[in-house]
Write a structure and sequence with these properties.
Number of helices: 1
CATH class of the largest domain: Mainly Beta
Radius of gyration: 21 Å
CATH topology of the largest domain: Immunoglobulin-like
Order of helices and strands: HEEEEEEEEEEEEEEEEE
Structural class: mainly beta
Distance between the termini: 78 Å
Number of domains: 2
Largest sheet: 4 strands, mixed
CATH superfamily of the largest domain: Immunoglobulins
Shape: globular
Length: 230
């Protein structure tokens, strides 16, 4: 009877351990979440690979502050967005960066171009309809946040400006405005095709002056460019 009770206590202790505190031999050694994280919430994320929506299975996405891992997620091949659990010892934190681990490609690790600021570790970030967009640039480029396939004219913008995409604008095109911290500001355009792939937009004067990112999703393609609002 005593032996059975001892075995039961050992089993319960092992089961209640935080699995993130263990080092997974299949991942880089520091890709584990520390034990002292008090708050956990999901960041809803879409991952793009060279501008194309990434749904391949087998890669692992990780969130960091500095070199400290705050959460890991194995990507499946069936979802277009991922709910990545991120832990913290504060209710709000800034400066999360992301990396992607690809064991099928010699254990390659890729940096993500975007960061996540003002993350609410109690209520999370984003949603299934408005997730954070992360872009993996597998090919080094000088300016990963700009695309020659997506342009703004005039730029800087005062009143009316035109967005041009070197891609067919279809009914599922959506163009969103984000601040430089990756926070969603406004949907600029969503709808059917326009002549010559040009969208004409009236500058919303309620949005503060400054530099922003425009992100256009055309089908499963992602285009990013910078815009300055005057």
């Amino acid at each position: 009877m005593k032996i059975k009770l001892l075995l039961l206590l050992i089993f319960v202790s092992l089961f209640s351990m935080n699995t993130f505190s263990k080092t997974d031999d299949t991942l880089p050694g520091n890709w584990v979440s520390p034990d002292n994280m008090l708050n956990t919430a999901n960041a809803y994320i879409k991952v793009y690979k060279n501008g194309t929506l990434h749904t391949s299975a087998g890669m692992t996405l990780a969130a960091f502050i500095g070199t400290t891992c705050r959460g890991v997620k194995l990507l499946s091949g069936t979802r277009t967005y991922f709910a990545l659990p991120i832990s913290s010892n504060l209710s709000n934190e800034s400066g999360f960066t992301f990396k992607l681990f690809d064991p099928a490609n010699g254990g390659a690790i890729y940096d993500i171009t975007e960061t996540l600021n003002n993350f609410d570790c109690v209520n999370g970030y984003g949603s299934t309809t408005s997730p954070l967009l992360l872009n993996i640039n597998l090919t080094p480029v000088n300016n990963p946040t700009a695309s020659t396939d997506f342009s703004v004219n005039p730029n800087p913008v005062n009143d009316v400006f035109r967005l041009k995409l070197n891609s067919d604008i279809s009914a599922n095109t959506k163009i969103d405005l984000f601040d430089l911290q990756g926070k969603f500001v406004q949907t600029i355009y969503s709808g059917a095709a326009k002549s010559n792939n040009i969208v004409e937009v009236n500058r919303d004067k309620s949005i503060s002056k400054g530099m922003y990112l425009l992100k256009a999703i055309v089908g499963e393609k992602l285009y990013i460019t910078k815009v300055i609002l005057l």
